[in-house]
């Protein structure tokens, strides 16, 4: 989120494990660009159905429960609000939620903020229009201050969109300090250990610091 807010940064790639808050990052960026820096926004999910579910289950509660956002975006259930599940307007901007499987939903008005979620679950081609990632990113070409964000859990090594994008990036990692020796490191599965004798007990797993070797539960 710091990188996305950095005016020097145009493209942000987030490759991570599942359930660590990637969709929350996208929601926070949407909230920021409704409240603080109004802009046209495009959010792309793997399918139109997932875009609808995201709008109803994730976006709507945020708009309802966040004081700064409440009343900025009219409820799509209100008659004449001009808003639908997949398209919402707010002062100074609008938000479109679309599906990578629907080229029609990807190719319309220019947008400044393009947010792509779970890109490894996108189809290789979106109809006859080509790569849905390129199609979506193209929408922001006219804006000098555009943001292009893609997030995903990687799927198959060598055939993963997010891995390819990460390889093209400057490959930053999230470093955390060891509580014992204070040395920074990024978390690796190989440092998770548990007793194998006399029987496997994963409930006793510890994380072993790669610098000082001390184990923490
Ligand atoms: Zn340590």
Q: What structural class results from the helix and strand content?
A: alpha/beta
Low-confidence stretches: none
Distance N to C terminus = 29 Å
Mind describing the biggest β-sheet? 6 strands, mixed
Q: Determine Rg (CA atoms, Å).
A: 20 Å
Beta content comes to 15-25%
Q: Which whole number gives the mean pLDDT? A: 91
Helix content: 10-25%
What binds here, in terms of ligands, is: zinc ion
Net shape:
globular
- Walk across the major sheet and give the strand order: 1-6-5-2-4-3
Give the topology string: H per helix, E per strand. Answer: EHEHEEHEHEHEEEEE
Described by its quaternary structure, the protein is: single chain
Number of helices: 5
How many beta strands in the DSSP annotation? 11
Written description of the protein model:
The structure is a single chain. With 217 residues, the protein is an alpha/beta fold. It is 24% helix and 19% strand. The strands form three sheets. A six-stranded mixed beta sheet has the order 1-6-5-2-4-3, with helices on both faces. It has a three-stranded antiparallel beta sheet with strand order 9-10-11, with no helix packed on it. The chain has a two-stranded antiparallel sheet with strand order 7-8. It is globular. The model has no long low-confidence stretch (mean pLDDT 91). Zinc ion binds next to loops.
Give the SSE layout.
Layout: E1 11-15, H1 22-35, E2 41-45, H2 48-65, E3 87-90, E4 93-99, H3 103-106, E5 113-116, H4 132-138, E6 147-152, H5 161-168, E7 176-177, E8 184-185, E9 192-193, E10 206-208, E11 215-216
The structure holds zinc ion.
Zinc ion (ZN) binds next to loops.
């Amino acid at each position: 989120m710091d990188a996305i807010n950095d005016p020097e940064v145009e493209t942000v790639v987030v490759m991570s494990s599942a359930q660590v808050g990637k969709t929350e990052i996208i929601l926070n960026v949407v909230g920021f660009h409704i409240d603080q820096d109004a802009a046209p926004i495009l959010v792309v999910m793997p399918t139109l159905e997932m875009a609808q579910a995201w709008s109803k289950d994730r976006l709507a509660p945020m708009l309802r429960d966040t004081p700064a956002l409440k009343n900025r975006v009219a409820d799509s259930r209100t008659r004449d609000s001009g808003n639908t599940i997949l398209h919402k307007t707010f002062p100074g901007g609008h938000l479109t939620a679309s599906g990578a499987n629907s080229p029609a939903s990807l190719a319309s008005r220019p947008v400044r903020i393009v947010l792509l979620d779970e890109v490894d679950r996108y189809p290789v081609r979106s109809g006859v229009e080509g790569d849905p990632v390129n199609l979506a990113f193209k929408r922001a070409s006219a804006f000098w201050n555009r943001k292009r964000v893609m997030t995903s859990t990687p799927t198959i090594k060598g055939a993963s969109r997010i891995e390819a994008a990460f390889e093209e990036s400057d490959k930053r990692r999230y470093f955390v300090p060891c509580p014992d020796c204070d040395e920074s490191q990024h978390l690796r599965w190989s440092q998770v250990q548990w007793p194998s004798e006399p029987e496997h007990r994963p409930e006793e797993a510890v994380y072993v610091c790669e610098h000082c070797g001390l184990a923490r539960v």
